[in-house]
Specification:
Rossmann fold; five-stranded parallel sheet; alpha/beta; 42% helix; 14 helices
Length: 431
């Protein structure tokens, strides 16, 4: 089986799909992984099958890292809009080039890669949506994650999934331009148009969706259709990656005392308010006499010396390595960070900024693995109290260990490979 996998975003958006590529190669399949050049270090070594890294989205990633943090107002945003649009069109073209090279039997695409479904249609192969949160499939069990973690009732929960139709209105023109370029006709933007319902193929059949998260974190709703596959998390196998060696300052700090508390917000805030966040974190750690590791990321927290031997400030370290060596974790609630913290069995405090982060914070709290999420706007006034709750409530630690053991017992990669084999096999039989 030949598989094209395309994803875009931050490291957390790429890492699960690189892990899937490794699992597919170990199962003897040939994989093309279309991701930005900046994530080449995540591309697995391969197995009986082959893995080809096709660079896609590098310009877009550079804009997110270097340009977006510098925006200071509406005029800057307008100036950047044209550049971003051009970069998105470039990403579409690069994904198409990857498809021409890969000649896949199935296309797996993150929704940030707008071209995915249309490339699958043009090639006449199954297109499989994939996202590590329950974003697409309507259910009465919980609201769409962008609405936070509160239930709106069975009818209200299901109704929130109409929000996903917004993508059709926002990017319809760009998508139709791309479809014309690859030999396809236009699609409608209305109530029943293809762009309004990403879960329907051109022939009306359901689109398969791979959800690489754990059912122990978000239970599978009873009203999910057979086309929605909750596989378990996709964590990289150690054989897929070079052994990561910590820098001397990190190794020495970990060895010098009790396990610290990890605090990191990635790129959240795009640098704005980073100094204030750093000061609030250092003050909260000081109040409770805690050792801490503060990860500055892409600018979520200002860099610099902590002014104390009890806190180490660094740019970052692989969560799968570091989280096993800390006492608790505080982060923004990205899907990848949440998965890594729970898998390590560490009590977790989520400080959500946007998007699906409040949803993951609510899930952590509902599981009993950490306190209620602390909105980022309340960081300065509320972090010290919430941090004390995190580290002094024994039940959070014990429950986190239970959830971690359940997650580690899953084999989400094997389940994902099996689903893709079945989808490709069924398509070959129908051909």
């Amino acid at each position: 089986m030949r598989v094209l996998i395309m994803s875009f975003g931050t490291r957390g958006d790429i890492q699960p799909y690189a892990a899937l590529a490794g699992a597919l190669a170990r199962a003897g399949h040939d994989v093309t992984l279309a991701v930005p050049a900046g994530f080449a270090d995540l591309v697995p070594h391969g197995g009986p099958g082959t893995i080809t890294h096709h660079r896609a989205g590098s310009t877009m990633l550079r804009l997110l890292r270097d340009v977006m943090p510098e925006l200071s107002g509406p005029l800057d945003a307008l100036r950047t809009l044209g550049i971003m649009t051009s970069a998105m069109r470039e990403l579409n073209a690069e994904c198409w080039a990857a498809a021409q090279s890969a000649r896949p039997d199935v296309v797996v695409h993150h929704p940030k890669c707008l071209a995915g479904a249309h490339i699958a249609e043009a090639l006449g192969v199954p297109g499989v949506l994939s996202l590590p949160l329950p974003f697409f499939t309507p259910t009465r069990a919980h609201a769409m994650p962008l609405f936070g973690g509160a239930s709106l009732g069975a009818w209200g929960n299901r109704a929130t999934y109409g929000f996903r139709r917004m993508a059709g209105a926002m990017y319809g023109g760009m998508v139709n331009d791309f479809r014309r370029e690859i030999g396809l006709g236009r699609v409608g933007l209305g109530r029943v148009g293809r762009l309004a319902d990403p879960l329907r193929n051109p022939d009306g059949s359901p689109v398969h969706v791979l959800y690489p998260y754990s059912r122990h974190v978000v239970p599978v709703p009873a009203d999910y259709p057979p086309s929605a596959h909750v596989t378990g998390y996709w964590f990289a196998e150690h054989a897929d990656q070079d052994v990561w060696e910590p820098p001397a300052d990190l190794a020495d700090f970990l060895a010098a005392g009790e396990p610290p508390v990890y605090v990191g917000f990635g790129s959240m805030g795009f640098g704005k308010g980073a100094d204030g966040r750093r000061d609030a974190i250092l003050a909260a750690l000081r109040v409770h006499g805690l050792r801490g590791i503060v990860a500055t990321g892409w600018g979520g927290i200002a860099p610099g010396r902590a002014g104390t031997d009890d806190v180490l400030v660094l740019e970052g370290a692989p969560h799968e390595w570091l989280f096993e060596r800390v006492a608790a974790v505080v982060h923004h609630g990205g899907a990848g960070s949440t998965a890594a913290g729970l898998r390590a069995g560490r009590p977790t405090l989520v400080v959500p900024f946007l998007g699906d982060q409040p949803f993951w914070g609510a899930r952590v709290h509902a599981l009993g693995a950490g306190p209620a999420p602390l909105p980022a706007r309340n960081l300065r006034t509320g972090l010290a109290d919430r941090l004390g709750d995190l580290v002094h409530t024994d039940s959070y630690a014990s429950r986190a260990q239970e959830v971690g053991a359940a997650i580690r017992a899953e084999n989400g990669l094997a389940a994902g490979v099996q689903v893709l084999e079945q989808i490709a096999g069924a398509a070959a039989t129908d051909a």
